[in-house]
Amino acid sequence: MSLRLILIPTLCAVAALTAACDGDKSVRITSSHSSDEDAKGVLKVVDALQCPQTIGSLTRKGSASSEGTVCKYVGPRGAEVILQLVPLNDQKPSDVLQAFETRLSADLPQAVAGLRASAEADKARAEADRARATADGARAEAEVAAQEAEAAARSGDRASVRAPGVNIEAEGDDATVRLPGMHIETRGDQASVRIGGFHIDANDSTGTVDIEGGENGDSVSVRARDDSAEVRASASGDATRASWILTDNRPSPEGWRMVGYEARGPVGGPLVIATIRSRDRNRDSVTEDAKALVSLNVGE
């Protein structure tokens, strides 16, 4: 079996953190972190929103409303961005953001249903995988004890490579690759990758990808299921720096393919939150411009 055939689909899953492996089905994430919390900047306490007439691809609709706490913008193809100043009122920031998620998710019901059903199926598969892992462990011990001849390793059905810091074992559709800072396991259509602080699970037969990880308290989470994907990111520290995006290839009755928010706020609030609705599922200029609106008001 070619090691290239083992690594390419797995590394495509890793590449989902920053770029695409297959065009429109990609999930792109850009994240940064600093060991110095102050390097992120001090977020401002805001009394009223700054709402420029235009910012990037966005144009404000009317004037700020509700005493300067709400501004509405339109973007390309009818995209909508609503900038809001939200007091915490003794609530946790996570509870406030969850309420926004719930409202925005209602605009993409098919994506929510698909992700929920897939999560339940994943749980059932995980139980079956644990039972299979026990059997696989016994088989692996037998294989190590047998120590097949080097000629068999060259036959193409089985390969074994060992070097300082490198351990590669491949047989049929199964492979284990251990490199410094990286651990890859493939079993047929399934792949598990641990690289740095990230853990990636992919299943080609079910069209699913899960990515969890982060460093220095920052975190990124991605769930992708065929036509839909959910991306969540948050920064470390007591201040709120969070983003959430839900996408679906299938448009809602209103034509939406992407919803989400960008939120920031100092400890104790208030939060500045830009909600996004777009008819384009890709994270395009609308998302970046919404982020710029939040930064203009509360800081980086």
TrEMBL record:
Residues 206-228 are annotated as: Disordered. It comes from the Bacteria. Residues 1-20 form the signal peptide. Residues 116-150 form a coiled coil. Keywords: Coiled coil, Signal. This is Methyltransferase type 11. It comes from Brevundimonas lenta.
